[in-house]
Amino acid sequence: MNSNENSRRSFLKNALLLSAATALPTIWTKASGKTSSSSGSVNAGERVNLACIGIGNQGGSDVMSLFNTGLANIVAFCDVDMGAPHTLKVLEKFPDVPRFQDFRTMFDKMGSQIEAVSVGVPDHSHFPIVMMAMGLGIHVYVEKPMARTFNEIELMMKTAKKYPKVVTQMGNQGHSEANYFQFKAWTEAGIIKDVTAITAHMNSARRWHGWDTNIKSFPPAEPIPGTLDWDIWLGVVQQHDYNKDFVNGQWRCWYDFGLGALGDWGAHIIDTAHQFLNLGLPYEVSMLKAEGHNPFFYPMSSTILFRFPERGNMPPLDITWYDGVNNIPQVPEGYGTTELDPNIPPTSVGKIQPAKLNPGKIIYSKELTFKGGSHGSTLSIIPAEKAKEMASKLPEVPKSPSNHYANFLKACKGEEKTRSPFEIAGPLSQIFSLGVMAQKLNTKLLFDRDTRNITNNKLANDLLVGLPPRKGWEQYYKL
Description:
Blueprint: H1 3-18, E1 48-53, H2 57-67, E2 72-78, H3 88-93, E3 99-100, H4 103-110, E4 116-119, H5 126-135, E5 139-142, H6 150-162, E6 168-170, H7 178-188, E7 195-202, H8 230-234, H9 260-269, H10 271-276, E8 284-291, E9 301-308, E10 317-323, E11 360-365, E12 369-372, E13 380-382, H11 384-390, H12 404-412, H13 422-441, E14 444-448, E15 453-454, H14 458-463
Helix pairs in contact: 5-6, 6-13, 9-13
């Protein structure tokens, strides 16, 4: 047994011992305890043995997208609420797959049979699951953003380096589609160069719009649904009483659980610019607008300025983020129409209204201006007259050889490299974490990129780490 295997086994043993104080839920599985491939006819060795943690809503969508690649055997499901209506579609599709409520129990019982895991759970729950999986040598596909706090993301990146054979992928799906390959090709060809400013915008309604911003406390306790394990749902976060407005997507509204509109859509809007313009981390984050600011959940509208320094031969660059239904940024002359791009999926609260500015970005360079959408939407040069002039100079853009899910599974098989591994997705996610700290405190933050500290605000610097984990969950921070 090599040192890595010893380390992983030791980690699993210690993690389970340290979490013994937390009551483990019942395992929902067949009495035989045997796993079974949902496809049945293909040898497991030809596909990746995949466990799925979080099987409703976005997690359920991930399950089906991974399965539909034809590259995965689904060997286990884990969800804190197996009786919830939003899990039924997946469970009916795969009735024979073993089921668990606690990811620790799943890894204990089936870790040796699991090669990869998808993690489609609330932001605050990403960290312990991902850390345990990587410690066991299990490949990880985790939804965006990578985690909730700057420090959690830092630890995830360090752990990924510790286990270089573990494949990682963050779930910003457009990072394997046309926008990724176009931005890469146009940057390499010098079409996109000398960028000085980016306007990023997401102006559709969010779940918290319409809430009372004058609240003085969290919502009152409600009876916990009998099918839900609230203790495991809370995970590392300090104790909160159950309320329906904390679960089923509502978690994204609260600073304690999610990263708001920025963490939700920023990963689909500024991801390619962040990677191919080598942005790294900002040196300054400023709140320019925080309409309806309160200490519990996100503003009704936010305008956040992120400032990045020179990078090699690239000039300083500012990204200005706009969210909120009426917080629509000014667009340049010649912007054109705002038809709804079919590559942009609907929001969690309904369809995007094409009469408004659709989620996307405007990229300003010294010579050209680009208009782009979200996810896989490609860029266009504006105004139209300039686009016609540039048409013959544009390089050919290769087609994607695999979507984001297939890219992950092929990387698990050693056939490709992931396009959004933790080394790329981590700094991007940390930008969102810094932006959320500025939102919560409604202030300007000065960030030292070398020491990775906030230099002008002690409370904000403490928030890089955040509150200590709840008792029984400390071990994931000690790797």
